[in-house]
Design a protein that fits this description.
Layout lengths: L2 H5 L3 H14 L4 E4 L2 E4 L3 E8 L12 E2 L5 E3 L6 H13 L5 E6 L7 H8 L8 E7 L4 E3 L6 H8 L4 E3 L6 H8 L3 E5 L2 E2 L7 E3 H16 L12 H5 L3 H11 L7 E6 L5 E4 L2 E3 L5 E3 L5 E5 L4 E4 L3 E4 L14 E4 L3 H11 L1
Parallel strand pairs: 3-6, 3-7, 7-10, 8-9
Antiparallel strand pairs: 1-2, 2-6, 4-5, 5-12, 8-10, 11-12, 13-16, 13-20, 14-15, 14-19, 16-17, 17-18
Helix pairs in contact: 3-7, 4-6, 9-10
Amino acid sequence: MDFEIMVRMTQKELKSAVAEELKEMGYPIKIADGYLYAQGDIPVLLVAHLDTVHRERVREIFYSKDGTRLMSPEGIGGDDRCGVYIILQVIQNTRCHVLFCEDEETGAIGAREFAKSKIKPKVNYIIEVDRRGADDAVFYNCDNPEFAEFVCGFGFIEARGSFSDISVIAPRLGIAAVNLSAGYHNEHSKSEYVDLTEMATVMERLSRIVETPSKKYKYLERTQLSFYGSYGQQVLDLWGYMNEPHKEKSELLMPLPDSAYLLIDGHQVENCGDYFINARNNVYDYIHHLDAAVKSENTTVHSQSGTPLRFSKDEAIRVRILPVEIALEMLGYLS
């Protein structure tokens, strides 16, 4: 299936098209509310999701001068059409089990439906392809060092993330899982773009992984102590404090486009990649180590023309918010 055709489809259309392509490959498939599953011969389960955050259908597609990047004013939907495309290419030569989920962006609804089903693929591990860039390997709460070493031996680097479909599926099946890069950037925004060179890199690495014989890797639950290392107990105390129901807070925040710039205490800052704004145009700084954002004082954000940037609910995502003092303490413990 051509990638341009794929990004122009609705979730429903893509599900039908993928089902037809799998049938043509000779896969036995199961179509259910929320997911599409196909049983393979190689003991690996590959996962991607069919939906995107964008509400508009892609009409226009623009390429960079060198032809390696593409984007759309409507939002290209690389998250996660890139993952779907990569998996369909890999299984042309390596017949893995595959699972395509619906509505990941609205709470992993399809993954939860699959987890409730009686399907239990006999696989050694699970790979989702739904992460920005080309090099990330995110294990979430799966803490199997042997599996991490196996995956990262193919050129991936362990990174942190908050949630994806495998966060539901892996513990249900008791099998180790990882989420790998898919070649998209600036996800959840209209400035999202897809890097075809990175997609090719991931395809090549993923093919080598699934073609390499392996043992079965169990899902081992990550504890907060093991995650935070030698300062684990202090961090657990803060974590518990943050997550008491009356103190937990999240908010809809919009990622800043590449064209925006910040004024921090009157000084212009061009790199806005880790900043967001809310509906009141308050600026937030996203801290990857904490998977949360803190309010940035004395900071304003402006469009390229110099006018204040306008918040768009359609481009916003829900982000956990931390008080500055709690974030500073946690960063101190983690340093």
